[in-house]
Amino acid sequence: MKYIVDFTTQFKKDIKLAKKQGKDTEKIFEVVEKLANDEVLEAKYKDHSLTGDYKDCRECHIEPDWLLIYKKYESELILMLVRTGSHSDLF
Question: Among 22, 25, 62, 63, which residue's beta carbon has the most beta carbons within 10 A?
């Protein structure tokens, strides 16, 4: 793995909620593994940069209304998992 994976306290809470909602959390960790290995995500994930409160972060779609917000710290090789949830949960 190229990047060390870390996560915010809020991300941890978001994952608990996703499990409670019946989401297949294995899907998100498959994407995290690709990101940690510095792989380019397929187009279906709609990976893109964000602005506003999440400036310097990126977002990808795990499912149509299930998002992952993350940030890569290139100099320290850290992949920070910031938030996960639906559009209405996050924005």
Answer: 62
Beta bridge partners of 23: none
d(CA 25, CA 52): 27
d(CA 61, CA 31): 9
C-alpha to C-alpha distances, 91 to 51, 67, 85, nearest whole angstrom? 12, 11, 10
Active site residue 87: yes
- The reply to whether the predicted model has a pTM over 0.85 is yes
What would the pLDDT profile of 24-60 be if each residue is shown by its tens digit?
999 999 999 999 999 999 999 999 999 999 999 999 9
Q: Which of 16, 35, 87, 88 is catalytic?
A: 87
